[in-house]
Amino acid sequence: MIKAVIFDMDGLIFDSERLYAKANVKTAKTLGLDKDEAYFYQFVGIGAQDMAERMKEAFDDELVDEFFRLGEEDAHELLLHGEVPTQPGLHELLDYLDDAGIEKVIASSSEVHMIDVMTKNAGIRDRFSAIHGGDQVEQTKPAPDIFELAWSNLGVSKEETLVLEDSINGVLAAHAAGIPVIMVPDTVEPTDEVRDKALAVVNNLSEVANYLKQNR
């Protein structure tokens, strides 16, 4: 029986991955880099440091550093002060978990400050008992660190815990942590490997609620 659910944030709770991608494309063009949104979707689910390291394999270090300096300003302005929509079915799922007495926490590659501000702006911060960010762990997804951290504070077994993820890197991280995971794809479709590692792949958060009702 599931007693706790660990939520990713970007792309799962919020429809924010597309906003990140648009901000990244804008910054790239400013610096003369001809990269579209599809290029940046490969980095969904990982932290900024890991993304920077991968980009530096293809571009000059100073150029990448400037990209992140400018991009961070644009993205933070957009996400912290703009209206970021929640994903379909979120409130239905939260209500179901509340009624079932299932604990809810967030474990995201975003920084804790970003998670706190975005969830407060959306009026859902108090729906989660704890938040954990990529700035609290040594390695971000697909390493299991963030999910190990979130689970260690729950007081339940890994078999009684469920991770919800929208990204391939997130599913791989949950699987590496030994925690069951359901994928709700957003901008990136699951590979065959990811389908094998996930309990299920569903279309939206409402379907997660239905899955839990049928498998309690």
From TrEMBL:
Q: Name one GO molecular function term.
A: hydrolase activity
Record keywords, A-Z: Hydrolase
Its domain of life reads Bacteria
List the InterPro entries.
HAD-like_sf, HAD-SF_hydro_IA, HAD_2, HAD_sf, PGP-like_dom2
Q: Which Pfam families match?
A: HAD_2
Q: Which residues form the signal peptide?
A: none
Provide the protein name: HAD hydrolase, family IA
Q: Which organism is it from?
A: Dolosigranulum pigrum ATCC 51524
